[in-house]
């Protein structure tokens, strides 16, 4: 039976390598036929913020990769509403990450769901394996 | 189905413990390790929040004894209700709780 | 219980490698099984054999190697993270055209799939990091 894996992202990108190397694990995880959920809370919400441009840092902009995850069957991105609000952000500040639903004539659907803190707690409790970065 | 939450950062430096307590469910356990044990001391600005987590949220809070000793925190100075475990007790907590989640 | 441990920080800078080591010892003492220890991020630096800490300090890399030898532990260093940080075994060094390797006994270099497999195969997966 497939296990439920959650990837917990609580740190902003670029200041540390955690966001990038978390994404690298998620890309590999896609090949394992397990259920994959990505959670973005606290500063982690900045990992999928719009308009990232680390060019002047000399670093790679890996933010476009999140939108490619749908092609690997990774379509469950949960973002915590309170974490956004605390940082003066709203859903409009997030990248429009979508996937094509095979079961619905390849209709484009949003992968990102903004949830409350209480809902996030339930999502966390519902997992088998939690990888934190 | 309970979860063991593991926090390793001082609550005076990072928001990990605060965020953890905001997501812990009734019956869950929180284990403070490494610098997080600084939060287990009585009389801190966080004491009432931790006490509320234990009494109102029904969350059990533990602190890793070797990390308390290393930092010179005697068990007498601990907040009432926080239980001290050693590494063997840490292992037992991971057995008793079906899931573990580290708040890095 | 069968455990997989993930270690995300290098030795000395952070306590996470120490904590993971103490946890692993305590779990083994209780008769549990450590299916795998996976070293990721700067955690790959736990697997160098070239560390020479002062004599009055602990030797973390050696302690991991010794624990692995005693209990047959599978210590896996993530290849992608290792390549970024200059951790090499002999075959990888050769493949990269490098003249030296530095991996400690008991460690092996492999892919991130080993971490996912650990999560699938183990009853408990614990992450030690910063």
From TrEMBL, chain A:
NCBIfam families given in the database record: PRK00211.1, sulf_tusC_dsrF
SUPFAM superfamilies associated with the record: DsrEFH-like (SSF75169)
Name this polypeptide is given: tRNA 2-thiouridine synthesizing protein C
Family in the record: Belongs to the DsrF/TusC family.
Species in which this protein is naturally found: Thiothrix eikelboomii
TrEMBL record, chain B:
Any Pfam family matching the protein: DsrH
InterPro entries attached to this UniProt entry: DsrEFH-like, Sulphur_relay_TusB/DsrH
GO biological process terms on file: tRNA wobble position uridine thiolation
One GO CC term, this protein: sulfurtransferase complex
Record-linked PANTHER family: PROTEIN TUSB
Protein name, UniProt field: tRNA 2-thiouridine synthesizing protein B
Protein's organism: Thiothrix eikelboomii
Automatic annotation (TrEMBL), chain C:
UniProt keyword list: Cytoplasm, Transferase
NCBIfam families attached to this UniProt entry: PRK00207.1, sulf_tusD_dsrE
Domain of life: Bacteria
Pfam families: DsrE
GO terms under cellular component: sulfurtransferase complex
GO terms, biological process: tRNA wobble position uridine thiolation
SUPFAM superfamilies (alphabetical): DsrEFH-like (SSF75169)
Protein's UniProt name: tRNA 2-thiouridine synthesizing protein D
Annotated coiled-coil segments of the chain: none
Keyword Electron transport appears in the UniProt entry: no
GO molecular function: sulfur carrier activity; sulfurtransferase activity
Subcellular location: Cytoplasm
Keyword check for Transferase: yes
Database matches in Gene3D superfamilies: DsrEFH-like
Family, similarity comment: Belongs to the DsrE/TusD family.
């Amino acid at each position: 039976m497939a296990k439920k894996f959650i990837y917990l992202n609580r740190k902003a990108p670029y200041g540390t390598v955690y966001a990038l190397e978390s994404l690298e694990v998620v890309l590999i995880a896609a090949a394992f036929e397990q259920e994959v959920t990505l959670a973005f809370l606290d500063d982690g919400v900045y990992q999928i913020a719009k308009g990232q441009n680390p060019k002047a840092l000399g670093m790679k902009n890996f933010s476009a990769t999140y939108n490619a995850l749908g092609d690997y069957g990774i379509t469950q991105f949960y973002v915590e509403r309170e974490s956004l609000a605390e940082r003066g952000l709203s859903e409009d500040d997030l990248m429009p990450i979508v996937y094509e639903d095979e079961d619905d004539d390849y209709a484009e659907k949003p992968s990102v769901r903004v949830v409350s803190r209480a809902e996030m707690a339930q999502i966390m409790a519902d997992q088998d394996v939690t990888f934190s970065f | 189905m309970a979860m063991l939450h593991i926090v390793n950062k001082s609550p005076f430096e990072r928001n990990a413990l605060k965020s953890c307590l905001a997501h812990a469910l009734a019956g869950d356990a929180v284990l403070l390790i490494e610098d997080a044990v600084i939060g287990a001391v009585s009389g801190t600005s966080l004491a009432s929040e931790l006490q509320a987590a234990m009494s109102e949220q029904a969350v059990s809070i533990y602190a890793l004894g070797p990390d308390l000793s290393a930092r010179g925190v005697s068990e007498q100075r601990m907040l009432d209700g926080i239980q001290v475990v050693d590494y063997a007790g840490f292992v037992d907590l991971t057995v008793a709780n079906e899931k573990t989640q580290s708040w890095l | 219980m069968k455990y997989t441990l993930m270690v995300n920080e290098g030795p000395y800078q952070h306590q996470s490698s120490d904590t993971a080591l103490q946890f692993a010892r305590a779990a083994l003492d209780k008769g549990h099984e450590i299916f795998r220890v996976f070293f990721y991020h700067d955690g790959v630096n736990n697997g160098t054999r070239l560390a020479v800490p002062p004599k009055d300090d602990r030797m973390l890399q050696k302690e991991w190697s010794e624990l692995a030898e005693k209990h047959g532990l599978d210590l896996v260093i993530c290849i992608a993270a290792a390549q970024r940080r200059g951790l090499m075994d002999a075959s990888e060094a050769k493949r990269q055209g490098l003249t030296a390797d530095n991996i400690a006994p008991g460690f092996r270099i492999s892919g991130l799939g080993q971490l996912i497999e650990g999560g699938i195969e183990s009853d408990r997966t614990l992450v030690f990091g910063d």
